[in-house]
Design a protein that fits this description.
Biased composition (Low complexity) (chain A): 1-11
Radius of gyration of chain B: 24 Å
Number of strands of chain A: 2
Structural class of chain B: mainly alpha
CATH superfamily of the largest domain in chain B: MetI-like
Strand content of chain B: under 5%
Order of helices and strands of chain B: HHHHHHHHHHHHHHHH
Largest sheet of chain B: none
Subcellular location (chain A): Cell membrane
Oligomer: heterodimer
GO cellular component, one term (chain A): plasma membrane
Number of helices of chain A: 14
Number of helices of chain B: 16
Shape of chain B: globular
Shape of chain A: globular
Distance between the termini of chain B: 45 Å
Radius of gyration of chain A: 27 Å
Strand order of the largest sheet of chain A: 1-2
Helix content of chain A: over 70%
Keywords (chain A): Cell membrane, Membrane, Transmembrane, Transmembrane helix, Transport
CATH topology of the domain at 87-145 and 190-283 in chain A: MetI-like fold
Strand content of chain A: under 5%
CATH architecture of the domain at 87-145 and 190-283 in chain A: Orthogonal Bundle
Distance between the termini of chain A: 70 Å
Membrane topology (chain A): Multi-pass membrane protein
Chain lengths: 317, 308
Amino acid sequence: MSAATASTASRTRPRRRLRGGGGGGERTAPYVFLAPFVLLFIGFLVVPIGLAIWNSLHTVRRSGLGFGSASETVFTGLSNYTEALTDAEFLAGLGRVLLYGVVQVPVMLALALTLALLFDSAAVRFKRFLQLSVFLPYAVPAVVAALLWGFLYQPQVSPVVDVLRSLGADPDFLAPGTVLWSIANVTVWSVTGVNMIIIFSALQTVPRDIYEAARIDGAGEFRTALRIKIPMVAPAIILTALFSVIGTLQLFNEPMVMRSVTSNVSSEYTPNMMIFSTTTQGGNINLGSAMAILLGLVTFALSVAVSVASNRRGGKR
Amino acid sequence: MTVSAVEQQRVASAPVRTRRRGGGSSHGERPSKLGVAVVSVFMIGVLVYFMLPVYWLVVASTKTASDLFSTPGLWFSEMNLWGNLSRLSTYDGGIFWRWMFNSFIYSGVGSVLMTFVSVISGYALAVYRFRGRALVVGAVMGSMLVPQTVLAQPTYQLLVEIGLNNTYAGVLIPSLVYPFGVMLGFIYARSSIPTEILEAARLDGASEWRIFLSIGSRLMGTGTVTILLFAFIGSWNNFMLPLLVLNDQSLMPVTVGLNGWSQASITVPELQTLTVVGALVSIVPVVLVFLGLQRYWRSGLAAGGVRF
């Protein structure tokens, strides 16, 4: 009883370094503040990954036939992984997104970097308006962006096809050989803006006197951009490259939506779509999990490769 | 002719920002006339590329189903926007507005909670030194490399296990894990909160919670809005998880609903027009949020850029 009153008293009394430098609260506070994130992180990131790994190492075996058949889950080691790695469709999908990434990421980043450099120079007018126009597509959900471009690819409705036809060309954006690049165009359209803004923000933080020094040394705008600006914002470029590579391998929304305008995108077009169809229509969660883990490993390996390569280049300078 | 229509659009909208920014000539060197001309031509191309699809969407939304296919795509014909909108509102018992409402719940509630978690976690990581800090920072950085796919399917399985599949919570709760936001929060807190102020507040007897509320969160203001913007756009964009988790039409966000219409429009031609109008209506809220918060993301990203 007396202990209770004492503790209430100490809570109501204005505290002035009562607990030896405010130690107690300061020590527990970070754990309390981080608790929601850590709980969510464990519940919806660590546990699902664990579950995926467990699933990938097991297989559901059905004994007997018909409705009354019992099914049991047995440990099958890496057999799901070997099945995934020998699946021609899965490998084709993986090859497809890698090819896509090799083209889409450099093109998109080159465009983003060029625009960021131009916006940072004196050569562009209506800067704010133009910046906004480039960034705005980022606010358009990927699904809607794909729907939109889907219309612009269809010869029956597309003004783009009309214009190209009047110029004598006969483009087919949805043919088996071109549809991958039509999808790449949708993502370039969507994400160039946000990458441009990240690089542009980094450019804005470079101290201006460095440019002054370069100018006195006789370097023109172009040389300054190439030799000073780009190296100065290399960390931002690497960051955007990293996120782009991750995004590339996860390609899902755009090709999924494109399926409504062309039959040249199969339900197993990208690894992500294949995982989706294997687990939902195919009902094989175990194989799907193995594919998901494999895709995760490839993503991880590529991200590490991008960071290592950029570190090595950075080290040379 | 179609190209000139775009030209007109450009010229009409360009003077909105005729005032050139003072910082225009950033290096004190006037660019050559030829340089400006080349850059201007390039920028017109850029503007057309990025704005043309949105412009087409606006024009197409005003057309009847037959005009959509028979009239030039880049210019208006008979005005039928209101007809399309009212059809959109009544189709299938007004399911479209239900989807919009759902998206508002998922993105509105979701992004506010995501931002709160990100800001308070980033603040804790930046301000305190404690056991396990390095582990959490490492986990945040590492988890940004985890593809959504690895998570989507087992998350779905987990939701089925705890009975949250096909519910609002089933879409909302998993989306609250937002390592990118925590990283941004960490960056903003580290660059905007001087530790001396916190020490002074502690000496005055303020509790840690109070210090966070009245000092930390205020100093992180701009960064907070930037995180909110990214969280809102990210969750409005959410597609794969709701596609897996929900099978009840009335719980779907607008992205999943529109995709369904688009797939169905192969057999139900009327849905083609509705998909177009629906797509336009669905981006209005995000675009408004985006334009409204312009001031914040411009400076917010610059603040983050220090450490990127």
